[in-house]
Structure formats: C-alpha cells, structure tokens
Amino acid sequence: MSTAASYLSAVSQADARARKLSDTDSTTSTPALSLSSSVTSSSTETVLDDAPFENLDGLSYPKVPPTSEQVFKTVHSEFGHCANESFRYTARYQPGGQFARPEQEPPHYVLLSTYLSYLLLICVGHLRDFIGKRMRPSSYKHLMKQDGYMALNSDFDSFYTRRLMLRIDDCFFQPVTGVPGRTIVLLDRSSPDYNITYYPTGTRTRALNISSYNYLGFAQATGGCADAVEESVRRYGVAACGTRLEGGSLDLHLQAEALVARFIGTEDALISSMGFATNSTIIPALVSKGSLVISDELNHASIRFGVRLSGANVRMFKHNNMESLEQLLREVISQGQPKTHRPWKKILVIVEGLYSMEGNLCNLPAVLELKKKYKFYLFVDEAHSIGALGPHGRGVCDYFGINPRSVDILMGTFTKSFGAAGGYIAGNKNIIDRLRTSGHTGAYAEAMTPPVLTQVIASTASIMGISIQDKNSSLQSQAVAYPGPVPSSALPPWMPLAPTMIDGTDGAMRLRRLAFNARYLNRALRLLGFLTYGNDDSPVVPLLLFNPGKMAVFARLMRTRATPIVVVIVAYPATPLVTSRVRFCLSASHTKEDIDTVLTACDEIGDLLDLKQGTCGRWPLEEIMARAVEIVQMKEMP
Amino acid sequence: MSTTTAALEPVFTFLASTYGTLETNFYKIPGSHVVARYVKSSHQNDPGRTVLEIMLFIFAVRTLLQSRTRADRSGKHFIKFDEKEIDELVDEWTPEPLGAELTSKEKAHLDAVPVIAGPTGPKPRLTTGKTVLNLASYNFTGLAGNETINQKAVEVLRRYGLGSCGPPGFYGTQDVHIQLEKDIADFLGTEASILYSQAFSTISSVIPAFSKRGDIIVADRGVNFAIQKGLQISRSTIRWYDHNDLHSLEQVLESVEKERRKKGLPLTRRFIVTEGIFDCDGLISDLPKLVELKNKYKYRLILDESISFGTIGRTGRGLTELYNVPATQVDMLVGSVANGLAAGGGFCAGSSIVVNHQRINGTSFVFSAAMPAMLAVAASEGINILRNTPSILTSLQENIRAIHSVLDKVDCITIPSHPASATIHLWVRLPSPTHLSPTAPVSSGKPSNPLSVIPRDPMQFDYDLEEKLLQDIVEEALAQGVMITRAKTLRGQELTEVRPSIRIAVTSALSKKDCEKAANVVKAAFIKVVGRRR
Ligand SMILES: Cc1ncc(COP(=O)(O)O)c(C=O)c1O
To answer: Which residues form a coiled coil (chain A) (predicted)?
Structure first.
C-alpha cells in the first residue's frame, strides 16, 4: 500500500518537528504522536501534513506527553488526548438542588457606561451619516431611492448594521478550514477599509475552538464515524435526490428514524434535512388557526418562523418564568379565543431544552406539573441539549430523570452534538405519521443525504453502544425508558464498527468529559469573579461583557494570544441591549489543559477589561486549576 | 429601580438637548405655529385639558403600537373572572388531539411510498427487491453516484469531517462554502451568491429579507409552496397575476401603478415573484418578456429556478442560458443545489449588495448551521462536470423528447408541461361526456381580481377522482418496473387547489431506449387504469 509509506514518512516528519520542539522545551521524553485510528485511507497524510504549524501555539501536541501505556486513537488537534480518569463527571439534576442561580446585577457604573457607549455610538453614527451623505453621496447611493426604485435597504433600516455592527464585523463570518473540532484553522484576513471588504492574507492560524457546537466532539475527520461515512459515500454517493414522499426515500432514512426513536425513547421519529426547517415546517402541521401557541420569549428564530407560518395565535411568557406561564395559561384558557371567546382548539407550549444564548435549562419538571393541570401540549426544542445533557446523553428529560414520553413532541438537531446536519421530531406514532403527511418537509423539502444519515446513525450508535447478540434479548430492554445498547441488526450491515463504539466506551467517555468540562468552566469562571449566566452543567457558558466596546476587544485579544482562542460574541438584537456577552461552547474534545488555557486567557483579559464584576468568592487562578476536580465534584458552589 | 433611573440619566440629558433642536425644527414645519398656539391657548384656559389631550394622544399611539402578541387585558373583550371560575373553566376545557389520526387514504398513500435500498440512481433496487427504472427522483443530470464526486467527497470527509457545527456567522463558513458560492456566481455570471442549507427553506427566507410590510409583491398564481410561505412571512401587499400569463402581469403592474398615483402613495419596494420552470405543471416562464416588464415598471425580479437550474440551457445554467438573458438582469435568482447539482441546499445569486444583505437578514441563513463541507464540494464538482460536458444536457433533452413522443398523443393524458422541461406533468384526461372538459374553462374574457389568488375562471377538475386514478397508475407502473410519483402537494395548505398530476423527472442517466420503454409502461398504466373506469 503506497499510502502506508507516505503515512510513515509523514509520521516521521511530524516526529522530527515535535522533537525539535521539545528540545527547546528542554523536555527529554519523546513526544507521543497522535495516531490516527484509520490507516485505511490516504487522508492520514493530510491530517499530519496539513499543518504548516509548528507547535508554537501549543495546540498540536499535548503539553504532557502520554506514557507508553496510553494509546490515543484520535488526532489531538481534533479531539484532545486526556487520559486522566478523574477529569470525568456525570451530570444529573439533584432534586432539591439549586435550579437557577439568582441573577447577579452588575455595578451601576457598568450599566451607565454601557448606555453611554451606545449613545455615543449612535450619535457618532448619525453624524457620520450626516456628513457622509454630503461629502460622499456615491457611497450612500444604494441606500437611497434611485431611478424609480426604492432602496433595498434604507439608510434608516441599516443604521445598526452599518454604524454599530460594522465596527466589530471582523469578529463574525471568519472563514475557516478543516475540522471544526477541538481546534480550528482560521484563514486569516485583513481589511483595508475598516471591515467593508476583506482580503485573505494567505496565512492560517490554528486556534483553540471554544465556539463550535461540537458538544460531543463528533466533528472528526478520523475515527469510527468518519470511517462509517466514508463507506457510505462509496456505497450510496452523496445525494438522496428528491423529497421523502416523491422518490427520495432510502432504506437509510428508515434505519436512522428507527434508531433516533430508540435513542430518544419515543415510539417514532422523523428526520428532516435542516434543523431550522424542522421547526419552521413542522409546527404549521401541529397548530393552525384557532389554536394558541405559548412560546418562551427567548425561543429560537426557527420556532417563531414556524409559528408565524402556522397562522395560530401566539402569546409569550417571560423567559423560564413559571409564574408568568401559569398566569398566562389561566388567562388564555378562561378567555378563550379573542373576540369570540370560543375555547381554543388546542394550546401548544413551546420551550427549549437548553437556551443557547443564556446557558440555562428549561424548568421541565415545573412545566410538566402545569401540563397536568392545564392540559396543554408540550413541544421541547432540544437543539442544544440532545446529546449534551443527561447521564445517557438523552437531553433534558434524561437530565431531570423524566420519561421522554411525557413530553408530546421532542425536537432536536443533528448539527450540534452529532456533528452532522438536519433535525428530528420524536413523539408517538400517530403524531409522527401525521407530520410525515401534513408537514411541509415530506412533500416539498429535499430528503437528508446518505452521508449525513450515516453520521447520524454512527454517532447515535456510538453514544448508545451496540449489542452484537441476537435480536430477542434486545426486545425486553425496550421496556426501559432508555434501552441499552442498540442491536447491531438495527444498523446498516455494511457499517464498519469500531470496538470502542461497540462496547459503548467511546460514547460514555464523550459524555463524561463534556460534563466535566462544562461544570469546570462554569464554576471556575465564577470563582475568578466573572459574571456568567446559566446552569452549572450547561455546555454553553455566556460570560457577560456589557460594554459594546469590550466585545470586539475581548474577541481580538483572545484570537491574538500565543495560543489563539476563537470565541463567539453576541450582542443586540440576539440579546438585550445591555447584556452583550461572549459565549463559550464546550466540547468533549477539550482537555482540562484547554480549559485551563481558556481560564488563563480570561483571567488576564478580564483584569485588563475590568470584567470581574461578580460577587462570588474569589479564588486565585492557580488554586482553581489545581483543585479542578474538587470544584467539579462540589455539590454547591463555595 | 434606582439602577434604571441612574442608567436612564444620560438618556434624559440627551433628550433635553435634542428638545432644543426639535423645537427649532418644529417651527420650520408649515402650519406648526397654529398647532403651537392652539396648545398654548388651550393650556392657559384649562391646564387639565392639556393633560387629558396628552393622555389621549399617548393612548392612541399605544393602541396603534400594540402588537397582537400582547395581552389585551384592558381591551373591551376582556371578561373578568375570579380564581374559582378560572379553575372551573380550566377543568372544563378539553383540547383537540394534537395530531389527527391519518385517514385510511392517507395511510395507504404513506405506505405506498417506495423506498430505495442502497444508492439512488437511474435503476435503483427497492426494498421490495425489485429493480426499477427511476423516473421519480430528481437526478436530472445523472450526477448522483458519480465516481469523481464520490472520490472528492471522501477526500473532503478526511479533511473536514462531516458537519460544520456552527452557523455561517460563527465559524461555520468554511473555505469550501466560499468556493461554492463563487462557483455558482461564476457559473451563472452574477456578482455573488449565498448558500442556504436547504433548498426548500431558501426562497422563504429570501423574500422576507427584502420585502417588508407595505412593500408590493406581484406574484404568479401558480407559484410553489415555498414561495407562498415566503410571501406569507413577508407580510407585504400581494397582487396576483394569472398563471404564466404575462399579459395579465402587465395589467396588474399597470393597475398597481395607477392606484399608487391615484392615492399618492409613496414609493415602496416592488417585486415580481415567479418561477423559471413551474413546480406545479412544468411550464416555462418567458424570461425576456419578464425582464422587459420589470424594467419598464421598475420592479425587481425574484426568480425561483429550483427546477430549471441544472436542467435547462446548453450547460444547465437555467433559464438565463436558455434565453440568453444575462443573469444580472434577474435581481434575485434562487436555485436549488439539491435538485440541480444532486447535493444539498439552495442558493440565491445576485449582486453583492443583494447577497450581503441576506447574510444579516436571511433568517434561515443566519440561524442555521452551514451545510456540510462534503455537500458543498460535491456541488462544486457538479458544476465543473456540467460546464465541461454539454453532452449531458443534450442527452437529457433527447430523453425528454423521447418521453414526450410516447405520451403526447395518448387520449387519456394531458401534458401541461413545456416540451423542454425536465419535469413532465401528466394529468388524467377523462373522456366521459359526464365530465366537463377540464382543460378548457369557459373564459369570460374579463381579467381576474389581482387581490385574490383564485383566478376568475379556475380550472375545473374532480380532485379526489383524479388523485385516486393517478395513484393507481403510479402503483401499476411500479408493478411493471417503472418508478414514478404523483406530485405530492398539501391540499388545504396550498393557496389554490393544485391539479393532481404525475410528475416524471427525466434523467440523462437513462438511455433513450430505457426512457421510451419506461414511457410505454406509463402509457399502458394510464390506458389500463383509466380504461378500467370506463
Ligand atoms: C433552539 C434551536 N433550534 C433550531 C436550531 C436550528 O438548527 P440548525 O442549525 O440545524 O438548522 C438552532 C440552531 O441554532 C437552535 O438553537
């Protein structure tokens, strides 16, 4: 095999690079290499050769080389090597435990300066527009009426984008390449005209990726899932060609749907090729005129889109506020439909499992209590929580120990934890069949493609574990809410199965590493004195910045460190005007070292930008890093 | 509370300073002195009255601004109940089931959907074990299963993994996406293009990204479901013209302009929305005429090429290539990467202003993860193949002609589709004299009402009967080894009743002989099923 030879030479080159590096580090041990699991394809070269990166950023190889017993099958830059079994955790809801932390208020001067900053930005923006329109009318031409055409985007409508967003535009739409795993490779760019246009500088930067929705670390170009996908491309090609009801249905669709239903713990499930469209095309099939949707005020755009298409009435309740929800329910049920006072046909309450901008969980036990009394139907969007929460990775129901069948509709996406694309809807068979027929997806939208289906099947099976025995034994286990391993007969027979997928160790390791990382970063940031939102077990960690000016500075400082880190900053309109924030998305692929790197960076930048406004007890960074395991295991925060 | 006051302080100072400027500007408005004098004098007479008037004014503004999502507790329709009554009402209320159970017909249709075991293609094997000729799947140019594409896909997999794990704004934009956007723009000859991760969700975001409440959209009565949803989301003022009838379009454009002039309405954004090849019947729009009209009346053109892109024109560039109209003449050209290039997703091509606007305002672009790298590369490779192999489109057209030649003259079939369209719709024609001839509505000659989506003389047909016959034909053809499908539509959710049809998706991957063979099977199935009825 010619590839084997090139692989070996790549290995030795990489070896040499690493050796040179460790010399300067004055370490004498031979640094271990990340062995790729698949020796079957030519791609192993790309993984190792790909990097023109010397390990200057400290990202390509682990700081502490592994011992001879430790064998890692992943590429470190994709999925970090972490052999320390104490850096694991299993998160579940402790009844009686703190559900939501009291929100902390920032000092007044922070709020004041934030308002002032916005005021200044708006004034300067208007001033620039005023002068600009007179001095350089040509650059305003597309915002003005011309030759009988109204502007596509008036200067007024686009004010926020042009005058506020543009200033920090370099923090968005950053082009990248390669696997969005533990690290990500940025294609550097530069702007000659203050972010109006960019040109690529031709260089690349590898950065620690704490931004992608890669919760379980399935974004990998090597390993069991990638091997399965490769096999499927060779067998199925890349296209499904058509909609599910019109000649685009493959056996893979049926297998994936059955597997997902089994994974979620419901009777049936359907799959759609886009997560956004799962909401926007299925909600109209559930409710229509004469029905009412009660929606959390912070629900995702796709939910609002779907609700608007449905023609149902909408009411909002305060974010995660159960009193507000109950009060609203009492009002709407007693009042009935507007004007006519006829009773509502049905009421659908839509909440998210984990709110991606807030990092908090919906209060599912309380919602289910209300559901008993008020007889509404419940739709939970688990886009961010499926896979990422719960001891078995089955989302919020699993986290709270609730039977998934007590929720009417469980929706989720495969873009996040599964490293795939698209979404699913799970529920009882009746409803799912109704949605297959009446949802827009079945008749009009393209079916999910075979490689994506395979990634879904492989990653789900990996989380569940696979039992190779005969089918009969598996039938009993279906009675439990979360059936154990999936029988191999439920998987495509041609799918290559890695040993760690079969015994379930791969999935368990991912779940436990993610739980540890999430809890560690959440608590450590608070112990450092930062203001953060959300639940301790949430893999999404928003850190509040407030001032608009600090957003871009924070992101740029993180990106230009010796070990570059990429972060996501979010501001109005995705958040309320004052509470601009930076959002970290943790992954099972991060190691404790990586979290420490993030903490160190936050600590330094936090001091520089005066971000440590929290009222929590402060610990020094070294102590936090040394007592990480203890911090994670603590029942309550100190 | 004190926090907010403190925080609002700068706002107050700002307000005070702007007040001065406002005042001077206010007096520049003609007639403003009268208003000012009125307020002053009324205040002198009766200070209470000023308060009252201000309150009235605020109330009026509030009522205007009140959105329909807010509670109307104070509204006149609000009935006050005490807690006990509410509890009783809650107890009494019984909701309808969340999803109505499938009817036996729906269940039968769902169960009858054929499932392909293994790869799709011109001759797939079904889960029943049968190998069939495939005239149902959208594999127009035969790119599905192409070896080069598969090889590329595997290479990409080994460099990018599968998912992009993030929306384009947050590190989801990979170089391969940028490349595909560039490839599409180059292929069509536009300045730029933008990728969405599902074709169906593309145009329903594109339309509302540009057209808002108060803007005017003139749309064809036969537009597809995705466009209908986009129109609904946009909340714009919609005017309809008769299906694929550009005379009717001109009349509507004229009437809109007349109305605007008569009422002295301000200029708003105006769009014509239509399709290249219509999803409902396979008709082709007359693009040069459309462009002429849009330029004449100063509208922007949103053209949905979901079916025509990748199926028509010398190298598959769609309508613009067919008619030799520069793609820059179409303001927003929407197409499907999933249909046209056998990958996944959709795109909108246009000027860079149009494209960049969507990067912030296209809802399903902003709030959804970017498409998997592998699909983007597969599509780029697809474009490459189309560009370099014009023979693909030639053989596609030959196959279309071959199928037409078999089906055109069958008594019980009406083909509304254009002879060059790669989707061929087949309607049942019932010869029985008890049926009105459905294709020839008695025309009263008067134009339809542009405010209503229903035309003046809608086509008459028996939906249930035709649907049933077509379903029987589909099943009969399948039994004879040809996979075809009815065009599935959501009756009741579509704005108008779409006439049931069988939609043949022609592919270049079948030989001409196979196409003829398949068409003969379809013909036999039609004759058998319709004949049985007689
Ligand atoms: C709550 C929620 N629902 C749906 C989606 C859409 O998912 P996708 O990116 O797969 O289209 C998202 C993604 O951002 C989300 O956060």
So the answer is: none
